[in-house]
């Protein structure tokens, strides 16, 4: 019977030993004598050992580490979804760089993979009604730090709420209007942290 655990561990250890990474084998609990014997295994020996039904390893789950890794994976997934959402809503290179650290090449590749094209030429400028709606939404939910990811999330919600096939409203347009509002808003009317 084939023991995938034996085979996978042995090939990984053999590769590490051939590359001179003894610490990897030590970290798995192999002794110097065992490493010396492993390094001289032939392909037939490796095949034989992988066919042995009794595993020579035991696996122990570090529950705290696993939980932490799973949490980080979920955070990363949420982060990637936020980036995709921003791109689909028409975020500019500047926005994607400022909030997510993406360079022009990263942005171009992500847009290509998502099938998003940005029209060239003059950008859409919201009419007075849309402008007023953007302001009302922003005023209602405005965070203290307008450069935070939570602020960007609010800007995306505004874009989603107000965009339609007729107005071609993008996240970039919404953010540009909000930045303009913030610059012209008297200091006394801005919320303080």
From TrEMBL:
<dbReference type="Pfam" id="PF11198">
    <property type="entry name" value="DUF2857"/>
</dbReference>
<protein>
    <submittedName>
        <fullName>DUF2857 domain-containing protein</fullName>
    </submittedName>
</protein>
<dbReference type="InterPro" id="IPR021364">
    <property type="entry name" value="DUF2857"/>
</dbReference>
